[in-house]
Amino acid sequence: MLNLDGTPYLLDADAERGIIEQIKSLESRVEILRNSGELTQETLVNYYGARKFEQVAESNAIEGSTLSVGETELAVLKGITTTGHDPAYVKDAISLEKALVRLAEIAKDKELATDHVQLHELHELIMGDRPGGGVFRNEPVRIRGADHRPPKTWKEVMDAMDDWQKWSIENRSLPAIIRGVVLHAWLAHIHPFVDGNGRSARAITNLELVRAGYPPIILRKKERDRYIDALAESDAGGDIRSFFELVIERAEGALTGLELSAKSKQDYNPAIEKIKIRQAKNLQIWETSVALLVKTIEHYLTELIEPVGGSSYIREFESPLDVEDYTGLIQRKSVSRSWCFIVNVSIPGIEKLERLAYISYRQPNLYHHMKNIGGPAIYWSKKNPSGYPKWITDEHNSPFCTEMTIEEGVGDAWSARLINGAINRYSTTELSKNIAHALVEIAADNK
Fold first, then answer.
1. N or C: which end of the chain has fewer CB within 10 A?
2. How far is residue 292's CA from residue 349's CA, in Å, rounded to a whole number?
3. How far apart are CA 215 and CA 255, in angstroms?
């Protein structure tokens, strides 16, 4: 078992093996990258400069800020308030940017263990001129939308935070991802401040990662539901597996981005820029096609199960791919597994059915069928009985097809690899109707 003694969290043996294996792989990549001599100042500016304001904007957006990345940059650099936004969001952007700058300075001390002093300093910077900066609360709070009730009194908060600090100091040799996940989830669980707990917890995770040589991760607004759900699971019963999965995915994505920056030439290339514009347009077509597919599946599911008292719900994840991801998939390179949507089917007297659709690159058979042109494809996974990772691929129980994709730039021409290996072409209507029928059949077999 992982050494999580003293924390509210436990990991079973299967989860431990999976997590350790992923972390070792990432740590090896970090070591190779940091020792390669490729991280020139030009590379660092190229990578971090493009993401600095995105990190501020996304972290604040999780808490309600409406500023875009560009508006955040204007706020930080010039203090400009864009019409239609709360001026407080500008202050929050400036404050968080100052905290992240200080975080990078603190992280230079590789031997320092995260403690109250660092937490108080970062929280005070994050809060800016808001009251309560760097001070543990002495009043009860409630976490909006959560069943968990944090410690009520100042003494209870201090006792919990002393345990938090003690664990951090005694376990300073644990891998950065484990420390970042535990300290983050535990801090959110205690909720030691009146305000700014989420931003502080995300800063602490990045402090651990940057101190160990990782690039900082960005938890985006579009992932807010998944992020909140994972923290709720850890609050409810100490189940931290989903949060590990999310942070590891984001760490892998950030590391891949830094690796690409380190390998890329810094000179501007007009041909490459034209390709990027084309790929951005194709990405928009892909997103529109997937959104239509989801809505059509939901429509046919409703038609099939409402007459028997059933219901269905499809939870979509906003824009799981960016242009960098899309480019990687075209090149048949691994990117962080991107969740696309989750289908829930409920029929009276039958066990609830859930299937997760995720995005990866085209597998060999479909790739060759598409004339050796790479691109994104959708795959199915089901809940993992062992618990970690949360979802696992099971082609034999995929609804209708195991893999589906569209031709580049063609929104209503789907090619699907069926369970028997055959590859056929379908319109959105045809494909969604077959998937809906297959989902109902799988649900019935679970009876």
1. C
2. 30
3. 6
